[in-house]
Amino acid sequence: MAKIAMIGGSGFDDPNILSEIRQVKMGTPYGPLSSDISTGKIGSIEVALINRHGKGHRIAPSLINNRANIWALKEIGITHIVATTACGSLRQEIEPGHIVFPDQFIDWTKSRKNSFFEGDQVAHISMGDPFCKKLRQILAEVAAELQIKHHMSATVITIEGPRFSTRAESRMFRALGADIVNMSTVPEVVLAREAGICYASIAMSTDYDSWHVSEAPVTWEMIVQTMKTNVESVKQIFFNSVQRINYEQCECKTAIESALV
């Protein structure tokens, strides 16, 4: 059976969305987790929740211990990860309040640990299609059925943060081909692939990034306001998707086998 985790960002720190809740506290070879893992059920499906920024949003994006978080989820048997993330829009058609299911990323981070393999062994993991196609399809189908405005594909560029982009950077990201910008997808998605876990992202467009000529500079207050609507949409998508996610073989689970040197 599938065992599903949601990695929650801003607005997803309430474990009471689950029944039969249990808190899992554990250590890892990579250090402490961002938060304890909350496990429980949605219907009959086992689900785990972890907050990447910790309780009260105390961990900056560049300081998240992604390796510990992904390792721990793998250790408790997670087969699929649905990751939520706030993002800024780099395209006019991706309006604030829309949901995006990215299928590509550009890595613009600078200082993050992006592999479990270091020292005695190197893994050249294949990332041509970095997000699980089957999982993305389920999420998008549910969004369509719920009539939630969404975009089936997009390229997300992950920046280091915690600051927001300058206008010059935002225009450059558009020129590079990015559609949305965030601070969390990389290296989560890479580590999930190394761990053999299917991974897809539900990105919540909270604002037009600073490229937008009519847009005031992006602020945290602006993001929080739009987030209130987005969070409810994401919860609906997640709740209705977990019943459809089945454990089946796909390239996500076996990619590491051909990557090790």
Number of strands: 11
What is the fold named in CATH at topology level?
Rossmann fold
Number of helices: 6
Q: What is the CATH architecture term? A: 3-Layer(aba) Sandwich
Distance between the termini: 31 Å
Low-confidence stretches: none
Assembly annotation: single chain
What gyration radius follows from the Cα positions, in whole Å?
Answer: 17 Å
Task: Classify the helix fraction into a percent range.
Answer: 25-40%
The CATH H-level homologous superfamily: Nucleoside phosphorylase domain
Strand fraction equals 15-25%
Provide the structure class: alpha/beta
What overall form do the CA principal axes indicate?
globular
CATH class: Alpha Beta
- SSE sequence, one letter per element: EEEEHEEEHEEHEHEHH
Task: State the gist of this model.
The chain is of the alpha/beta class. Helices cover 26% and strands 24% of the residues. It has six helices and eleven strands.
Topology:
Layout: E1 4-8, E2 19-24, E3 37-42, E4 45-51, H1 66-75, E5 80-89, E6 99-100, E7 104-108, H2 133-145, E8 150-151, E9 155-159, H3 167-176, E10 180-182, H4 185-194, E11 198-208, H5 220-241, H6 251-254
Parallel strand pairs: 1-4, 1-5, 5-11, 6-8, 7-9, 9-10
Antiparallel strand pairs: 2-3, 3-4, 5-10, 6-11
